[in-house]
């Protein structure tokens, strides 16, 4: 039978994306006998697969490597019967029931319930040294990794509320925080700016951009440039944090699902429900506030329970 005439596979509970939210949703959905099928997406395991040490997830007193933790969650989801597959959802149609999803632009699926756990991707500066040292001193999450730089000098790039909040957080741990701001002013709210400017541990470098992150195997400095006079300066630092925002991986869902101006999917408060019946969202694709592994896992649990209750109300479970 040709590919064009092959009937679409029908799935009771389809999970799009992996990571703490997706795998937790899979564990709960599988234990509820929803026979979940997961497509792992572009980055199986999500952002934690590029995070070395995770020390703030409950249950790991000695910490755990991000990739190892994601492999543990994957095995746990598989143990209960989750069908875990490689593939990327490339288009969706939520205009009717069942919902339709295309994977890798060729595999057609229909689903009674869909749990979206596609996460968000950190925005980066685009420097080769940034990519090379990612996980070796370069981070996009001060709350996740700031602990490793206690008593050390670090730098953070950004000018919004998140950058200001993370700079203040780092100042509680670190010896010195350089805040690199491209313009002569911040976008952050006045109260957040005041906290930064009043903190003696934070030095704001105005009208400054990063030329290069220095270090062979780990960060040991950053070369910054003043955009007004072209002068450069080398900062002696051991940690380099990028806080210029995240982009939720939600583009293919936006024609059907309510979202904010940044693209984060909106859920009904206290639930994982979207505006489309049978479609649920969890993890960083809908969380622009906390963006932590533990909160993502919690929302994955919520999504699976909401999906189970939705099917039960329809008499399908």
Written description of the protein model:
The radius of gyration is 21 Å and the shape is elongated. Strands 1, 2, 5, 6, 7, 8 and 19 form a seven-stranded mixed sheet that branches. It has a five-stranded parallel sheet with strand order 10-17-11-12-13, covered by helices on one side. It has a three-stranded antiparallel sheet with strand order 14-15-16. The two termini are 32 Å apart. The N terminus is likely disordered. The chain has seven helices and 19 strands. The chain is an alpha/beta fold and 317 residues long. 24% of the residues lie in helices and 26% in strands.
Which helices and strands appear, and what pairs or packs with what?
Blueprint lengths: L8 E8 L2 H13 L5 E3 L13 E2 L9 E2 H14 L3 E3 L3 E5 L5 E5 L3 E10 L3 E3 L5 H5 L5 E2 L2 H4 L7 E5 L3 H11 L4 E5 L9 H8 L4 E4 L2 E7 L6 E6 L5 E4 L3 E4 L3 E3 L30 E3 L11 H22 L3
Parallel strand pairs: 1-2, 1-8, 2-5, 8-19, 10-17, 11-12, 11-17, 12-13
Antiparallel strand pairs: 3-4, 6-7, 7-8, 9-18, 14-15, 15-16
Uncertain ranges: 1-5
- Proportion of strand residues: 25-35%
Class by alpha and beta content: alpha/beta
Largest sheet data: 7 strands, mixed
Order of helices and strands: EHEEEHEEEEEHEHEHEHEEEEEEEH
- Compute the average pLDDT: 93
Radius of gyration: 21 Å
Number of strand elements: 19
Separation of the first and last Cα atoms = 32 Å
**Count of individual helical segments:** 7
Q: What's the helical proportion of residues?
A: 10-25%
Outline type: elongated
